[in-house]
Write a structure and sequence with these properties.
The complex is a heterodimer of chains A (265) and B (219). Chain A is mainly alpha-helical and 265 residues long. Chain A contains 8 helices and 4 strands; from the N terminus they run H-H-H-E-E-H-H-H-H-E-E-H. In chain A, strands 1-2 form a two-stranded antiparallel ribbon. Chain A has a two-stranded antiparallel ribbon with strand order 3-4. In chain A, helix 4 crosses helix 8 and helix 7 packs across helix 8. The radius of gyration of chain A is 35 Å and the shape is elongated. Chain B is mostly helical. Chain B has 3 domains: 33 residues; 125 residues, no CATH class; 33 residues, no CATH class. Helix content of chain B is 45%, strand content 0%. In chain B, helix 5 crosses helix 6. The chains are: A mainly alpha (265), B mainly alpha (219).
């Protein structure tokens, strides 16, 4: 050890070697032995490490990974307990998050009829809000078109006639958007159906954030206009904020200063 | 006393030296090829899934958008595996009696997840986020291949670091317009190199130094 240290100090290597020459051979042979030892140690360590994947599979759960016996249902991701409100998701703005008026009458009688294919069609909408709770802009409608063509087109078809690919494959035909009943239906009704489903349609609240659901409603209104251009349809009376950026990026538009509810942040 | 080394010993020594280099080179080459083989990377390997789900049918035949099921691809790191309810949106009526779909119905009845086999399994020291790639013009098929032609999904690429870097070094070779992200038939040369360079500017994709910095992926 001390010999090594001397050598690595090295002020004048040749001189030093000359000084150490009587011991030189001993040093080299010891160093050789230590090299072999080092190689042996490295081999043992490599053999130990070579088959381990600690870094590849770390002791934590990846998204959707199965939990090994920790939770009875095998899921590593947990569902929040009922009634839990995540930060920023209080959703106080009832109009924005439910499409319903402030104090909906849960016992209100809803009139309905049944069409030829067995769908129950509501004809009165006592609790649905009649105005968009966010500014309807070109960006909102474009966003709605994009979202409609992802989630709705599969059954409702490209213009909402109820002839989507899944219907052609045998799913029950949904009613068309283009009759007086739905042309006169308040926007809150469409929002409620997207959120909670209706008849054979499941709710899409898990797939589509609320702002995008409103964008889709705006696009449905647009489709209704496109298929029946002579009839004026009530899109929105709230146009003062039409220069706002697309609200669909965030769950809730930042500068939504209109009628309904309080801030949700 | 006879010569210890025969005349041929020189040649043997030369050949040995040359062969040593050649064998070492071959061994290294074999190693590089082996480590890139599908045996190691899992590329093109189809896994046995609990349900014979076909992307070729759902995407190719039915034209369902990727995001109908993979809802969070634009907003989070994970593209999102659909809950069983998403399957039941249609299969409550379509093929509702099929024995092939019994695992789906059982999952829905018993509120238990379907245990899919993970096809793309990145090592956990690598950070990957779908949303940023989609937002910067990397289409699904750039990494996943023509999913709409895959009856059983397999890994289209090696997912090795050299593969990631091939794009992080030159993203302008692979990016596409926003409208074509979910287009499975898109080819990289559908637009010109100049258009792709302009896209790179429009997306404000960061510099090569930034994109190949270690901590971009190993964080």
């Amino acid at each position: 050890m001390s010999r090594n240290r001397i050598q690595t100090h090295g002020h004048g290597d040749a001189e030093m070697r000359a000084v150490l020459s009587p011991y030189h051979g001993v040093t080299v042979s010891r160093r050789r032995a230590s090299h072999w030892l080092l190689i042996a140690v490295i081999c043992v360590m490599a053999a130990g490490c070579g088959v381990r994947f600690d870094m590849e599979d770390q002791p934590r759960y990846e998204t959707y990974q199965k939990s090994d016996g920790i939770f009875s249902d095998g899921r590593a991701s947990r569902t929040p307990p009922d009634g839990t409100v995540a930060r920023g998701h209080l959703n106080e703005d009832k109009a924005f998050y439910t499409g319903k008026i402030d104090n909906p009458d849960l016992n209100a009688q809803v009139e309905s009829t049944t069409d030829a294919s067995g769908n129950t069609l509501v004809t009165s909408f006592p609790n649905a809000i009649d105005e968009f709770p966010l500014p309807v802009t070109r960006e909102l409608i474009d966003r709605g078109e994009e979202r409609y063509n992802i989630y709705c087109i599969v059954c409702h078809g490209p213009v909402g006639a109820g002839d989507g690919m899944i219907v052609r494959r045998g799913f029950s035909q949904p009613p068309t958007y283009h009759d007086d009943r739905l042309r006169n239906a308040p926007v809150g009704h469409f929002f409620d159906v997207i959120t909670n489903g209706w008849g054979r349609m499941n709710g899409y609240a898990a797939s589509i954030p609320a702002a995008d659901r409103w964008a889709i409603v705006a696009y449905i209104r647009t489709l209704q206009v496109s298929q029946n251009p002579d009839q004026a349809l009530k899109m929105n009376t709230n146009t003062q904020a039409n220069t706002q950026a697309s609200p669909a990026v965030e769950e809730k538009p930042a500068a939504n200063t209109n009628t309904s509810g309080g801030a949700t942040q | 006393m006879a010569q210890f080394f025969q005349k041929g010993a020189n040649n043997i020594a030369r050949i040995t030296m040359i062969m040593g280099v050649v064998v070492a080179g071959l061994a290294f080459f074999a190693y590089t090829q082996f480590s890139r083989s599908s045996y190691i990377t899992g590329q093109y390997v189809e896994l046995q899934q609990p349900v014979q789900f076909s992307h070729r049918h759902h995407v190719g035949d039915d034209g369902i958008d990727c995001r109908y099921c993979h809802t969070t691809v634009e907003t989070t790191a994970s593209a999102g595996m659909p809950p069983t309810q998403t399957c039941m949106n249609c299969h409550s009526e379509i093929w509702a009696d099929s024995p092939y779909l019994e695992p789906v119905r059982a999952s829905f009845r018993e509120n238990k997840p379907i245990e899919w086999e993970r096809v793309h399994d990145l090592p956990e020291y690598a950070y990957f986020n779908h949303s940023i790639h989609v937002a910067k013009g990397v289409g699904c098929s750039t990494c996943h291949g023509e999913i709409d032609n895959m009856a059983a999904v397999s890994q289209e690429n090696t997912l090795q670091m050299e593969w990631c870097l091939s794009c992080h070094r030159e993203p302008e070779k692979f990016i596409r317009p926003k409208s074509e992200i979910y287009n499975m038939q898109w080819q990289d040369n559908d637009i010109t190199a100049e258009e792709r360079l302009k896209l790179k500017e429009d997306y404000r994709i960061r510099s090569r130094d930034m994109l190949t910095s270690c901590s971009i992926c190993h964080r």
